[in-house]
Structure formats: structure tokens, C-alpha cells
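Render this sequence as a predicted structure.
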Amino acid sequence: MKSIVLLLTTFIFILSGCAQSNSNEERSVGSSCEDCEMMFEGMPQNLLWQTTISGSDEPGEPLIIRGTIFKPDGKTPAPDVILYVYHTNSKGKYSPTPKQTDAKRHGHLRGWIKTDAQGRYEFKTIRPGSYPFRKDPQHIHPIVKESNTSVYWIDEFLFDDDPLLTEEQKVRHQKRGGSGIITLTKDANGVWIGRRDIILGLNVPGY
């Protein structure tokens, strides 16, 4: 009888261990995510819900983007979500600094935000330039990292006043995380201000 009880106890313990192990595994969502692993290169240990990406001497028009990241219900703020963004300089190039060794393909204009208890995020940078000799509109690349979930990309930040943003290009966007097309306004100090709220997993394959 004791041996049966011991066997049952061991079996339950094993099942419990497997369940705990599975709960810590990352679920894979989204389609292929080119260069997404670069978000971890040079990532600071302590992240805040606000960050400044460009220095005061960075050429270009200053830009502030803020918003709230929501859970999949679209209503509940999502805390502790990491949002990584990167973009071109004012000339439309991903320009690493001379001493930069991490994620050189993403250039030096890159930053990380971790949402606060209200799901808020904000980053200050400059308005990116369009790629030289191409017709791609100005854009900022965003990558999302949630707990126990693989990294995935959402629609780029785009600006509705950009003459290169055509109706055809608007239709092509998948609205991953919600629409990335935002309206910018310029404040009294000449700073572009924009807002984008993000819904986790929205239109993300396999979420």
C-alpha cells in the first residue's frame, strides 16, 4: 500500500513539475521577425516607461510619441510590456555611431520602453527621414516583448501628413497591434507630438 502511495505521490510531483516548466516556456506568436533578436543587443537592465532616443545635437525635427498599451481586450492597461523602437536619421539612413557594436543595422536611433502600471509609454526622438532614392514613407519600427511570449513586430509608426504615404500603402498595412498611422501636431516649441495606443496580439498570427 505504501509503495502505491509513493508511486502516486511521485507521479503527481512529476506532473506538477511539467506544468510549472510549461508555464515558463515562451509561446511562439507572429510570423517571421527579421532582426528582432537585435532588440536584446545593448538593452539596458532597468527600463522605464519614458525614454529619450536622440541627443540634443541630433539633426532633425524633434518628435514625441506617447500612448497606452492595452491587453487583448483593448480596455485593460498592460504593465511591464517592453516596446523596442528604431528608425533612420534625418537623412533616411540607419547610421551607427563610430564606436557602436550592438545592432549596427538598426543604427544609433533606437530605444526601449517598459510600460508602467497604467500601460503608458513615451519616447522622444527626431522625425525620421525617408529612405534615399525610394518611395517608402517615414516610419519607426516597433517590436513588442511580453512575458512568456516570443518577440513580435507590429505595424510601423507612420505619419498621416507624409506625402509618401499613399492610399495603396495604407491598405497594405495589417493593423498588427492596431493602426500605426498617427496624426502629428506641432506644439509651440516646434516639437511634433503624436499618440498611438497599442492592443497586444491584435491581428498577430498565432496569438
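Summary. The helical segments are 2-23, 167-172. The two ends are 47 Å apart (CA to CA).
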